[in-house]
Amino acid sequence: SRSPLSFKLVLLGESAVGKSSLVLRFVKDQFDDYRESTIGAAFLTQTVSLDEQTTVKFEIWDTAGQERYKSLAPMYYRNANCAVVVYDITQPSSLEKAKSWIRELQRQADSNIIIALAGNKTDLASRRAVQTEEAEKYAAEENLLFLETSAKDSYNVSELFTMIARKLPLE
Ligand code: GTP
Ligand code: MG
User: Fold this and answer.
1) How far is the CA of 51 from the centre of ligand 2 (A)?
2) Between helices 157-165 and 19-28, what is the axis angle to 10°?
3) Which pLDDT tens digit goes with each residue over 12-38?
4) Counting CB atoms within 10 angstroms of each CB, which of 17, 45, 105, 112 has the fewest?
5) Pairwise CA distance, residues 68 & 86, whole Å
6) Which ligand 1 atom lies nearest to the CA of residue 149?
7) What is the protein's major site of localization (predicted)?
8) pTM higher than 0.95 for the full model?
């Protein structure tokens, strides 16, 4: 097997949608009910095995969603190979915020960037306020990968990163 190929991945989205929780689930298989809001950004790495020969290493920048950190985002998405833009399925305004991040990535990031839209907190089904079909339709129109996830229930989290890994240029 070869040494892993490294790719830079950035997470973007409104504060409290669960960016850090998705990363904590992916990297450490843990979840906190009272996670503190990220300050600036956090850096973590994790590998994904696609098959016996192919391992992808993600260098993950988990950005801070609070408005006061917005101007830092270009430092993290510049040169990113992939982006996960997260919204909360119980908060329609967080999907609008996700769309604005996606427009910014489409204008300012690398033209080959792979963008995934993630609708997080599917465990809060009784409070759902964004229908799957609505986000799915938007994602299809914009050529984005799309999955709904729950960092809490560990639903579709490794699938999200594996789906991205499969789209990366592995030669
Ligand atoms: P910033 O760092 O401020 O940008 O927020 P963030 O997007 O990193 O959100 P964070 O991961 O800190 O999660 C915010 C809150 O939502 C925390 O209380 C988490 O426990 C909760 N949370 C995150 N993911 C889920 C989920 O899948 N389900 C539920 N029920 N709660 C979640
Ligand atoms: Mg965070």
Assistant:
1) 31
2) 80
3) 999 999 999 999 999 999 999 998 999
4) 112
5) 18
6) 27
7) membrane
8) yes
